[in-house]
Amino acid sequence: MKMGRDISPPPAKRRKTSAPAANPPRAASLLTPKAPPTLESNILRFFSWNINGIAPFLQKPITLFFRTTKSQIGNDHGTKDVIPPASLRGFLQRHGWPAVLFLQEVKIANNDTKTQDAVKSAINSPCLSEVTSNIKGPTYKAYFTLPTDPYNARGLRGNGKIYGVCSILRSDLCKDYNVNVRSVDWDSEGRISVLEIETTTTKMAVFNIYAVNGTDSPYRDPATGVVRGNRHDRKLEFHRLLMQECIHLEKAGWEVLLAGDMNVAPDARDGHPKLRTFPRQHVVNRADFHEKILGGKNEGNKGLGGVDIWRRMHDQEKRYTYFSRGREWGTSCDRVDYFIAGRRAWDRGLIKACGILDSEGERGPSDHVPIWADIQLQEKDRLESEC
């Protein structure tokens, strides 16, 4: 793993308190990830996954990250092509063709239309079983929010590939609901995409988020390049701007749901073998996240008052979403990927279930595992829209 990347959290910076044990303890409850339940017809399933780079999903990998047999399919030239085990289409099929798949840290440059087209092809190229059974799955559309900031998202070689999110929507979603996908004007690092879904009874804005990771590296003004503090400072600003965006939407009648890599483990239950507290600024960042995003309304403050739906639904259960590839599985992990519902969306009962697919197989070539949530938008409308 190359160092110097913005990952969550940087494994090399965890404070060392003692020599590692010969057999370091593993996190409990990692052996049997819970599969999502069967869906009812009026419920939408959302997946979210920090994939740590799109490349392994688009080309034949040198190393097989999944413990599965290579599948082969004939092409127009009569030869056989290997379907990569880390197939986006395979993921969608394996999980029952979900309505939405949010990807974070795709590492695609804004002007790299070739890779963007490859993603669109990958999510719609039939799997082997679709071809052999002649039963085709649904089609999907991909929407990208990629970095345009020349000073803060340049990557290791100045090519702007370090961040970026992609929202993959099942095509029939645009027939069943009024759908719009947009970015926000305060982010140019490719960290925020907003999926707006309208029915006759509900308006919901679902955020695809790759949150800022706090570090001591400088943060520069996106327009001038002048240093404006460090990445810790930008993280706090990111929390404030995200909070304001959500509150503005709620005042306009929208329900709010946040999904993705928040780059914050909420409390001691969410870090193994322990919560990351060094350097001290991470404690400050966590407190700020609670105040602006998870707290606020209950304490009479001006925060969003969001609900961490995993923690609310699973109480004290310890499961994790980030697993360092530099360490043995289950020995160092954190829960930094999750869904946060606005208070009103939670009180209305729109969130029906959620889960974490915490297995090495589901992690694939990433250092995060996928998460999912089921959302009910009251009733199924037929509102035509251009997606």
UniProtKB/TrEMBL annotation:
Q: Which residues form the active site?
A: Y210, D261, H368
**Where do Low complexity bias regions lie?**
19-28
Cofactor(s) needed, names only, are: Mg(2+); Mn(2+)
According to UniProt, where does the site described as Interaction with DNA substrate lie?
H368
Cellular component GO terms held in the UniProt record: nucleus
- Any binding details for the cofactor? Probably binds two magnesium or manganese ions per subunit.
Fetch the SUPFAM superfamilies from UniProt: DNase I-like
Give residue numbers for the site Transition state stabilizer.
Answer: N263
Which annotated residues bind Mg(2+)? N50, E105, D261, N263, D367, H368
Q: Where is this region: Disordered?
A: 1-34
Which GO biological process annotations does it have? base-excision repair
Q: Which UniProt keywords apply?
A: Hydrolase, Magnesium, Manganese, Metal-binding
Q: Which InterPro entries match?
A: AP_endonuc_1, Endo/exonu/phosph_ase_sf, Endo/exonuclease/phosphatase
* Domain Endonuclease/exonuclease/phosphatase per the UniProt entry, residue ranges: 48-368
Q: What is this protein called?
A: Endonuclease/exonuclease/phosphatase domain-containing protein
